[in-house]
Write a structure and sequence with these properties.
Blueprint lengths: L1 E6 L7 H11 L3 E5 L10 H6 L3 E5 L7 E5 L4 E4 L12 E8 L2 E9 L9 H21 L5 E6 L23 H11 L4 E2 H5 L8 E2 L11 E2 L2 E5 L1 H4 L2 E6 L15 E5 L1
Helix pairs in contact: 3-4
Amino acid sequence: MRIATWNVNSVRQRTEHLLQYLKEAEPDVLCLQELKCTDDAFPRLEVESAGYNVATHGQKTYNGVAILSKRPIEVTRGLPGDEADEHARYIEALVPYGDGVVRVASIYLPNGNPPMTEKYTYKLAWMDRLISHARGLLKLEEPLVLAGDYNVIPHARDVHDPQAWAGDALFLPQTRDRFQELINLGLTDALRACTDEAGLYTFWDYQAGAWPRNKGIRIDHLLLSPQAADKLQGVTIDKHMRALEKPSDHVPIRIDLA
């Protein structure tokens, strides 16, 4: 099974890119973030015509997540823990896998900038809710893939210039500590299970020539339960998607499970 994640940065603007990626990479499951549209505005017909079931959790102008699957899925929307939170940042699905299922979540974790504001407080609180929810999911002892744009740079090797990002909400010690707490529940960072290489990025800003100068960061992650990690065969960052005309500032990253 091939599972990919991609912050598409406006699915309506990148529909052709999305359809191209589905044709090229042929993921069994694709998690999308930053749809920036309501459920009824998602290009459902085009994606379904490409052979995918579509589950969305959309929001006008901002946020929005989706799971596309070649197989029928059972869907849950929203991250538990705060009924007042109206941001569309989490969707979870059960996907048939072999004789059982794999549980996949598409996550768009808050950015949190600027630090020392309510935006950063919200980010940390959201991460605490994710940790609590993941702890419960791991007790199910099933293949689990928590995929998405985490807005977290885990280590210095995941950023082109650590000093330049030292005061950013994506790289603050509190942010990285929360991410490590999530990992410590028993999850595996899929990419780091395969390589320790530095300079592997999934995001390049539109400004200051970040892409041609390879000033990137790694903030899109697939975290695996032990049952999924045992089946991990490889990880691929589809970097070429950043070179397309009018691209997303993120590129897809995908895993293959036996």
